[in-house]
Specification:
Blueprint: E1 2-11, E2 14-22, E3 31-40, H1 43-49, E4 65-73, H2 75-78, E5 89-92, E6 95-96, E7 112-113, E8 126-130, E9 134-136, H3 143-147, H4 150-163, E10 171-174, H5 180-191, E11 195-200, H6 203-210, E12 216-219, H7 225-232, E13 238-243, H8 247-257, E14 258-266, H9 279-282, E15 286-289, H10 295-308, E16 314-319, H11 324-332, E17 339-343
Parallel strand pairs: 10-11, 10-13, 11-12, 13-14, 14-15, 16-17
Antiparallel strand pairs: 1-2, 3-4, 3-8, 3-17, 4-5, 5-9, 6-7
Bound molecules: NADP nicotinamide-adenine-dinucleotide phosphate.
NADP nicotinamide-adenine-dinucleotide phosphate binds next to helix 1, helix 4, helix 5, strand 11 and helix 8.
InterPro entries: ADH-like_C (IPR013149), ADH-like_N (IPR013154), ER (IPR020843), GroES-like_sf (IPR011032), NAD(P)-bd_dom_sf (IPR036291), Zinc_ADH-like (IPR052711)
Protein name: Enoyl reductase (ER) domain-containing protein
Pfam family, one: ADH_zinc_N
Length: 344
């Protein structure tokens, strides 16, 4: 048997994470059995529990991020001279069905994220995964750090490089720096020599962000945060904004923060839906939507993280699979700075 956390249907739109016992999976052709060592949370898990996410599937195992070791290979896979062997420490691609198309998944009908969806997730002691979706974890990372890398690290990689095309010397703003994805975006953009500024609801988080390469930041709860930000840059507007808040922030970004022809790379709406006004075309702004990334980008991200020695920022660590419901509440309260990780 294996312990796992599934999505239990609740009342109305509020659902529950429930710890259950399931039979241990047996690897099918081309799969490997992975013994999960640590898992990490994403804001997506909260949207699912709140009934605000597409393709929610009840009784599906939750969770998109994990690090583990290969404990068994299917007979077909073991004899196919594949690159993996028993004992390898691996990261799991958090989605299935998107190989390499830079524009988006090759076929949306076959694209799915792991966890709380038709594809079983990773909040479990054992998962059986297609070997093509398994990658050796960067050696410089601890298990706790590695668990926090896949979904957020991939989303930030595509947002910063594929969509944002961030380069040395550019002014880049990353909003909501306490967030898991945002902290990767800061580290990636700083690693290639961009001038990175941040926003947060918490001055202490802005100070901590400076340890990861931020030049400064402002509190987005202040009504005139955009004007305060431009004071910090000496009036220089931004080339790229990496944003997951949307809502009222978006118009401040388009109206004041971005320079003429700048790019707003948008991957979420934590603060509410996007409200588009004509100003965006008057200022020649490019709005570039992005979501997660392909398997090819996942490999590129792992190589980039390894080359630059980037370490995921882990805010809080819980111990034991039965602590996952508490950890989810902690994420919901937004007390964290970086990833919330649970060791199994
Ligand atoms: N499209 C995709 O593929 C994709 C992938 C991953 C995540 N997302 C989305 O991106 C968002 C962040 O995900 P995550 O996992 O990084 O979440 P997270 O770790 O829970 O972080 C959320 C952060 O949002 C910030 N925030 C809240 N209200 C804000 C506002 N009004 N203005 C600016 N920032 C605000 C907070 O930053 P402070 O604590 O600094 O105030 C908070 O820490 C979520 O909406 C998620 O659904 C999308």
């Amino acid at each position: 048997m294996t312990s796992a956390v599934i999505l239990e249907r609740g009342h109305g739109k509020a659902h529950n994470p429930k710890v259950v016992q399931l039979s241990q999976p047996v690897p099918k052709t081309n799969e490997a059995l992975v013994k999960i060592k640590a898992v990490a949370l994403n804001h997506r898990d909260i949207w699912i529990l709140d009934g605000d996410y597409p393709h929610i599937t009840f009784d599906s195992v939750l969770g998109s991020d994990a690090v583990g070791t290969v404990s068994d290979l299917s007979k077909a896979a073991a004899s196919s001279n594949h690159h993996l062997k028993v004992g390898d420490r691996v990261l799991i691609m958090p989605s299935t069905g998107w190989l390499s198309n830079p524009l988006g998944p090759e076929d949306m009908a076959h694209y799915a994220l792991r966890g709380g969806s038709p594809i079983a997730g990773l909040f479990t002691q054992y998962a059986s995964i297609d070997q093509a979706d398994l990658f050796k974890a960067p050696e410089h990372l601890t298990d706790v750090e590695a668990a926090g890398l896949p979904l957020s690290g991939l989303t930030a990689y595509r947002a910063v490089f594929t969509k944002g095309r961030v380069a040395k010397g550019q002014n880049v703003l990353v909003t909501g720096i306490g967030g898991g994805v945002a902290l990767f975006a800061l580290q990636y953009a700083a690693a290639v020599g961009a001038n990175v500024y941040v926003t947060s609801s918490d001055e202490a988080k802005i100070e901590r962000a400076k340890q990861y390469g931020a030049k400064g930041g402002v509190n987005y709860r202040n009504a005139k945060w955009d004007e305060e930000l431009l004071k910090l840059t000496g009036g220089h507007r931004f080339d790229v904004v990496i944003d997951s808040a949307n809502g009222a922030n978006a118009m401040a970004i388009i109206g004041n923060v971005l320079g003429i022809g700048g790019a707003l790379v948008s991957f979420g709406q934590t603060a509410g839906p996007f409200q588009l006004e004509a100003l965006y075309f008057v200022r020649q702004i490019e709005i570039r939507g992005t979501a997660m990334g392909s398997r090819a980008e996942f490999e590129q991200m792992l190589a980039f993280v390894t080359k630059h020695g980037i370490r995921p920022v882990v805010g809080d660590v819980f111990e034991g699979i039965d602590k996952i419901p508490d950890a989810l509440q902690h994420l919901r309260d937004a007390k964290h700075f970086g990833k919330v990780v649970i060791t199994l």
